[in-house]
Amino acid sequence: MGNAILAAGQPRFHRPRRQSRQMVKVLSAVLTDGLAAVEAACAEALTDGVHSAGVVLNILSRTPDALNSCKLYLPASTVARK
Fold first, then answer.
1. Domain range enclosing 54
2. I want to staple 53 with a disulfide (CB 3.0 to 4.6 A). Which of 25, 49, 58, 79 is the partner?
3. Are the C-beta atoms of residues 27 and 39 closer than 8 Å to each other?
4. Per-residue pLDDT at 76
5. What are 20-31's pLDDT values in tens digits?
6. C-alpha–C-alpha distance, residues 2 and 80, integer Å
């Protein structure tokens, strides 16, 4: 009987940890995408009625600024010369 009570309450204990992980993912995106972009993505997600880190990160990946922020720097020795 005691185990059933613990099992019923168990998801409640894990929930804050899951929410914290999602918040860390969103806050980590500020370092790469900037605060304004993350704030706009969060606002768009909330307007659409969703509130998961995956959705916010997906919105960030679809913005035109995100495409421009990813630059590939190659060493001079790998660049083709004429």
1. 2-78
2. 25
3. no
4. 73
5. 888 899 999 999
6. 71
C-alpha–C-alpha distance, residues 23 and 55, integer Å: 12
- How many structural domains is the chain composed of? 1
DSSP string, the chain: -HHHHHHHHHHHHHHHHHHHHHHHHHHHHHHHH-HHHHHHHHHHHHHTT---HHHHHHHHHHSHHHHHH------GGGS---
Q: What is the pLDDT of residues 55-65, one digit of tens each?
A: 999 999 987 76
Tokens of 36: 């304004």
